[in-house]
Hints:
By secondary structure, the protein is mostly beta strands. It is built from two helices and twelve strands, in the order βββαββββββββαβ.
Amino acid sequence: MKISDNKFVSLSYDLNVGEQEERELMEKATAENPLTFISGMGMMLDAFEKQVLGLKKGDTFSFSLVPEQAYGSFEDDHIVELPKNIFEVEGEFDNEKIAEGLIVPMMDSNGNKMNGAVVEVKDEIVIMDFNHPLAGETLHFEGSIIEVREATAEEIVALSAGSSEGGCGCSSGGCGSCGTEEEPETTGSCGCETTGSCDCC
């Protein structure tokens, strides 16, 4: 059976970024812990699905996705300054959860969810980066197809509700923690209103 719409797909892969000798392994899905998804349901990047379309159990693949096919270019205006008080809980700022390098789930004034990386915490503001962690990167995938079969109704419901194993081929979320929601519509330069009306989830 070949990969086509509404098929349950299980595959292993290595994801590298960078070029030639400088390539860096970013994520690995193994046969014991594979990436699983239902094809044709928007769970994966369109370009990723097109590359594995028509493959069957035992087939291998090797392809690259440029930023335009993956998570776009790195945008300087997706780095924004937000007032520190929006991160307070009961009047207290949590220095452990809002610290440099951490990923913080947030929501804009329209209820759209997004993840932001803490760049720097200052006295009155927090500088956040709302670029995808792999923005600007060319993604190099190598792997093999473990299983292809008809998806059951239960699997379609479960995986579309977000219980997929996830991965960097997904259409939203970050490396290794991808859900199955489509990437939310955003407003303003970073997904937040330009007035800084983001809330910490």
